[in-house]
Recover the amino acids of this structure.
């Protein structure tokens, strides 16, 4: 082994894997691009680069595969072969084979156990212009194919073939190879749209050639063989010796996939794995037509092409090595930790000397603060990566899944340059991929279904990202069928997630959010894509663990939108420091909506009880209140104590936990500062109350509240605010054009039906107790807020015209489970209206007024269900002679 080669090998692996991702996208472009020369050239360069480096490292298997791929790409690029689905498929397999071997090398310095002889033969046949399907007798005539290393030979560790000190070089090789494969992916996708672009083909050739060359250096025979087959094909394409066709693009995509598979194996166990790429190599070989030269000396031909592409690459792409440098991720983590310690030290200094600093000291302290902030920002930027890092893999996923489902999908990605902390970026990779796959599988319709609905046969899937304050917004939108709320409710009832009664009273937005329930799926049958009832709940959980949220919006027949909000980083975050029962805690500001204080002078008019749970009313909306001292001490304080605490020195922090909002009652808020998030000790990690810890300026430790965990622990429900009518942007715009939205309080009446009241006529909500009832002149009344209110049972009023019937109730006041009371007011008169359940507050774009229409109620459609809108004026007018006048005189 040669010492000091680890850096070179690591660079080779890194660039090769990057090139394979690029080849993947380029192969996808080949399938749709009628002018693929530029894409083929780019793919050829990528495969050629891999092949060339393989020889340096002694990666024979990788070199062989890359060589046949290079040969096929060369013929496609040069116009000797035309692009077709067979070529494209074979190139995809080539990429996969090279990737597999590179991953194996990265793991344990082996090319893996997979036999790629079939892949090599396939690539060779394609490069020779032969048919993809050949008999066994034809295989021997497909041209000289370098056989991959047998499994027994492949089991040997790379350390036995590469000099000592090559670990870093291998890691670099894997990293660059992965990057190169991403580039190949992109270029292949471009080739599908522009098959005559010579620059793309040249770039592909260089990439594959590079992977092949480095594979040979590391003795990755399987990867080298596959890259060689791809390189040969790309060489033909680059020289226009082959007309680029879909079959070439498919083959190159397969090559990219094979590259990745091999690279993954190399990265995991330092072997190329036990896969067999012989079919893909054969496919790439068969895609060549003019193959006499390659038969005589394929390696020499591919090497000759290397010199051509090298000068071409220098002319077309400026080198960036002088302006960038690769830094180990571990080094960045250490640097980030040191900056965190610096921030803690700064906070301690500010806390310790804030009352004793002179003016000169204050100036120095201010300068220290500025420098710390600048250093923190710069180090944070080193951890930031663009969304394109994970988005560049999606076009290939969309292409493959759309083809397997028989759908036509156009993918648009906007804002890929938006940056996120690499930790968050890594965590959202799988959730985003699932949302994309879900949109294609469940959202977008088949072409014939879309045509029948008057849509374009091609569905559109849009990913967009943008900043909003300290948050990043990511939207996944499709123009598919949307969510069928009725079917969703039925499926949830059939699955036992909700009852039929809950489904009947459930609003549109709440019903749509059922898709996030564990075990819920609308798929009619289980496939390898969907139907198992796992996925969307995991998406929501993973996003909320990052301090983010997912909002769902959908309109039947129009499409679906998933809106994700995430913090930019989790390492150093701004937070509020609060106290409760003598203890200090921190809550991230990203979860804080606002800070408020309930009513003063002992009057807690803004706090109302609903089902025994205190709620705070803010701007005509109700939010449940959590009492931090009760949560931690596991005590149940009386309402009087709670009101005293809330109305005295306590403050309420309105928090956001995904789609949920709730108020947290604390003693005081003492500071607003940046905190360094530290992990919890092992015995605290299993809980849901805290997400981390931090050290404050005075050296004390403050636990960081888990806003989502608290909501889960206290069973805070999703917000009941539902938007009637449409839910996409277009629908919202139309609603605004038709009239001003009005809010309604939606309730369930004692008979099980739904009723609605104008929210502007609702004074407050109260929970009935048996000891508050009394009778005045035979009428049931209660004392509330220093006044006597007549109690009207909606079920009695709506079903009778006799005023005397209003003196009775349809329930027994001795029952423990009493209905709720809505205190309403119209024209200065108040009554208490008995309802069974408060469903929530909804918006209506209908022009409603208290006196509109004739009769006691008006039927309106809210959330696709019929509700009775109560004419409160009519009710009070009917009750006034019997109730209100008498009660008024009695009170006096």
């Amino acid at each position: 082994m040669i010492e000091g080669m680890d850096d070179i090998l690591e660079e080779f692996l890194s660039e090769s894997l990057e090139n394979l991702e690029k080849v993947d996208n380029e192969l996808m472009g080949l399938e749709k691009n009628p002018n693929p020369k530029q894409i083929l050239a780019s793919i050829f360069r990528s495969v050629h680069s891999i092949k060339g480096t393989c020889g340096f490292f002694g990666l024979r298997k990788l070199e062989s595969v890359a060589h046949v791929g290079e040969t096929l790409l060369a013929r496609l690029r040069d116009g000797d072969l035309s692009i077709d689905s067979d070529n494209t498929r074979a190139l995809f397999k080539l990429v996969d084979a090279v990737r597999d071997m590179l991953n194996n090398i990265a793991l344990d310095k082996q090319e893996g156990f997979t036999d790629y002889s079939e892949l090599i033969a396939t690539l060779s046949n394609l490069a020779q212009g032969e048919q993809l399907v050949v008999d066994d007798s034809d295989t021997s005539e497909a041209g000289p194919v370098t056989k991959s290393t047998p499994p027994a030979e492949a089991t040997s560790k790379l350390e036995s073939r590469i000099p000592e000190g090559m670990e870093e070089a291998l890691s670099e090789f894997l990293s660059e190879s992965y990057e190169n494969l991403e580039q190949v992916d992109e270029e292949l996708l471009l080739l599908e749209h522009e098959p005559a672009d010579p620059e793309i083909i040249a770039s592909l050739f260089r990439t594959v050639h590079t992977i092949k060359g480095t594979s040979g250096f590391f003795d990755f025979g399987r990867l080298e063989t596959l890259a060689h087959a791809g390189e040969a094909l790309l060489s033909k394409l680059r020289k226009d010796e082959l007309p680029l066709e879909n079959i070439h693009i498919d083959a190159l995509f397969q090559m990219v996939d094979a590259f990745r598979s091999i690279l993954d194996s190399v990265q995991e166990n330092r072997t190329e794995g036990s896969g067999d790429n012989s079919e893909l190599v054969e496919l790439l070989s068969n895609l060549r037509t003019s193959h006499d030269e390659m038969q005589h000396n394929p390696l020499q031909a591919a090497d000759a092409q290397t010199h051509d592409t090298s000068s071409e690459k220098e002319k077309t792409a400026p080198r960036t090595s002088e302006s960038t440098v690769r830094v180990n991720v571990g080094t960045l983590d250490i640097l980030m930790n040191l900056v965190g310690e610096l921030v803690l030290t700064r906070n301690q200094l500010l806390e310790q000397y804030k009352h004793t600093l002179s003016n000169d000291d204050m100036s120095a302290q201010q300068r220290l603060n500025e420098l710390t902030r600048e250093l923190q920002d710069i180090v944070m930027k080193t951890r930031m990566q663009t969304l394109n890092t994970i988005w560049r893999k999606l076009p290939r996923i969309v292409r493959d899944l759309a083809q397997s489902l028989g759908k036509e999908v156009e993918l648009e990605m906007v804002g890929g340059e938006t940056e996120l902390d690499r930790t968050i970026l890594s965590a959202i990779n799988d959730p985003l991929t699932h949302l994309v796959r879900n949109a294609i599988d469940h959202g977008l319709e088949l072409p014939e279904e879309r045509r029948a609905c008057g849509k374009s046969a091609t569905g559109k899937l849009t990913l967009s990202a943008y900043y909003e304050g300290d948050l990043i917004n990511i939207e996944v939108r499709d123009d598919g069928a949307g969510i069928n709320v009725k079917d969703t409710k039925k499926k949830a009832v059939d699955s036992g997630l909700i009852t039929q009664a809950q489904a009947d009273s459930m609003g549109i937005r709440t019903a749509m959010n059922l898709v996030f329930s564990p075990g819920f799926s609308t798929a009619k049958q289980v496939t390898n894509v969907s139907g198992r009832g796992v996925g969307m709940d995991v998406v929501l959980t993973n996003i909320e663990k990052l301090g983010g949220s997912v909002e769902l919006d959908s309109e039947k027949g129009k499409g679906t939108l998933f809106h994700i909000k995430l913090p930019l980083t989790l390492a150093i975050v701004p937070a509020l420091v609060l106290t409760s029962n003598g203890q200090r805690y921190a809550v991230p500001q990203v979860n804080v909506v606002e800070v408020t204080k309930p009513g003063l002078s002992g009057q807690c008019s803004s706090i109302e009880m609903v089902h025994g749970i205190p709620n705070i009313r803010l701007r005509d909306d109700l939010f449940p209140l959590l009492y931090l001292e009760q949560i931690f001490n596991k005590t149940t304080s009386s309402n009087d104590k709670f009101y005293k605490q809330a109305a005295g020195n306590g403050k309420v922090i309105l928090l956001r936990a995904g789609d949920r909002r709730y108020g947290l009652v604390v003693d005081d808020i003492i500071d607003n500062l940046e905190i360094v998030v530290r992990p919890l000790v092992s015995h605290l990690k299993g809980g849901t109350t805290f997400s981390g810890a931090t050290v404050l300026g005075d050296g004390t430790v403050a636990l960081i509240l888990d806003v989502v965990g608290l909501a889960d622990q206290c069973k805070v429900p999703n917000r009941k605010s539902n938007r009637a009518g449409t839910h996409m942007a277009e629908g919202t715009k139309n609603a605004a054009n038709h009239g001003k939205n009005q809010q309604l309080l939606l309730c369930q009446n004692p008979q099980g039906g739904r009723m609605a009241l104008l929210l502007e006529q609702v004074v407050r909500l109260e929970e009935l107790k048996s000891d508050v009832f009394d009778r005045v002149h035979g009428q049931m009344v209660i004392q509330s807020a220093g006044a006597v209110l007549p109690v009207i049972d909606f079920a009695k009023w709506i079903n009778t015209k006799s005023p005397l019937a209003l003196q009775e109730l349809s329930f027994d006041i001795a029952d423990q489970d009493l209905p709720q009371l809505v205190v309403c007011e119209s024209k200065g008169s108040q009554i208490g209206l008995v309802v069974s359940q408060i469903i929530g507050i909804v918006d209506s774009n209908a022009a409603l007024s208290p006196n509109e229409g004739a009769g006691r109620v008006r039927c309106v459609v809210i959330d696709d269900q019929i509700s009775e809108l109560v004419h409160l004026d009519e009710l009070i007018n009917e009750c006034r002679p019997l109730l209100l006048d008498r009660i008024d005189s009695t009170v006096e």
Notes: The chain has a mean pLDDT of 74.
